[in-house]
Amino acid sequence: MSFRTYFDVPGSDASGLLQQVVGQRTRVAARMATVDRVVAVVSGKGGVGKSYVTAALAVAFARRGMAVGVVDADLQSPTVARLLDGRTDAPLRVEVDGVLPAEGRDGIRLMSSDHLLDDARALRWTSHAGEEHVWRGATETNVLREFLADVQWGDLDALLVDMPPDASRLIDLAALVPRIACAVAVTIPTPESERSVARALAAAREAGVPIVAVVENMSGYRCGNCHDVGPLFEGDAGVRLAAAHDVPFVARLPFSHASLNEVADALAPVADAILVDPRRPGNSP
Amino acid sequence: MKFLCLECDAQLTFTERQQPGDGTFAAAFVCPRCGRRVALLANPMETQLVSSLGVRIGGSELEPAPMELTRAATVTREGAFTETDPGVPGRPRWSPEAQLRLGQVPRFVRGMVKKIYGEYAAEHHIVEITPEVMDRARTELGMEGM
Q1: Alpha carbon of A23: minimum distance to chain B alpha carbons (Å)
Q2: Which residues of A touch B76 (CB under 8 A)?
């Protein structure tokens, strides 16, 4: 038996799957049209202080009088909203044009799964279809898409995306937001972190996202009394990553009792690097 | 996905969909030439795989509600979201029966669905929304299941 193929039959299908997916992308693009730059903060590894750097960068922008938003793309381990004093127990207000973002300190606009979850409960799904590993990735990516497209971000100078540790998630973000302005990579000094962050840098290259800064967090320990910085971890991952991948090593953050404002000040050169649009001719970092 | 009547070499026309709540999905099609009716029955895994894309199975004329997938797919804490009634000045009345039926629509899309019925009524100069009006709007706008 021989019969016609999908493309041989001229009528449209009832589901309009392709049109719906195109509509999703269109809504992301429309929402991002009022955002000057989307900046991903990546590490490729958990526990290096990526959310902490994201929060301090947001404060650095806000203290310059800039409008800044933060998306917590780490759906399973959301932390950045609380770092920015965002109330996670208040309801998110839904309007026809989208959900209003939560507000953190300094007027920073926030969206995080932390606003949706009960304390001490992991992100769970309503579906009982089973074989969760098959469909969870697609669902998580589409939740992130809604965090971008369905929130009334308004006019923003910068929207920072606190990425999950998995290096490949930057490629997913790049599929949703084709013109990510740049990424900031966060590492700690150890060789183990160096190897993981190298993978994140490779993922950024694959996604066509320029890395404008490497930040080495927990780069020594600053004594609370004498303020001297002593060794904390073995390794020199920040310098080595910058040299190996031809990206700027911009800041070291010692482990300390510094306030978020003080860390924001220390990250001023990173904020400067972000504001130099690397995609504009002559602005290559 | 398209369905073809091999006898008539004609594309089947979609007529109805149902999602009974057990994770399955059913859609009915009819051949425009011979009138043969066919049902597509998807199991929960097949239904979930497509739902994970954030699309409405079977399509819809309605714009997605804000965070529709997030609110439907994730177990959120009680009161995570609060609705704002879209409010349409001079909007039509809702009969008690229609209000009852509207109450059966999932809460997270209810505001949007209410607005669309309201706009449909306004366009057709209908002063009171009744279940019959809702049925007509559902058919014309492809809102089956709402």
Answers
A1: 9
A2: 116-117
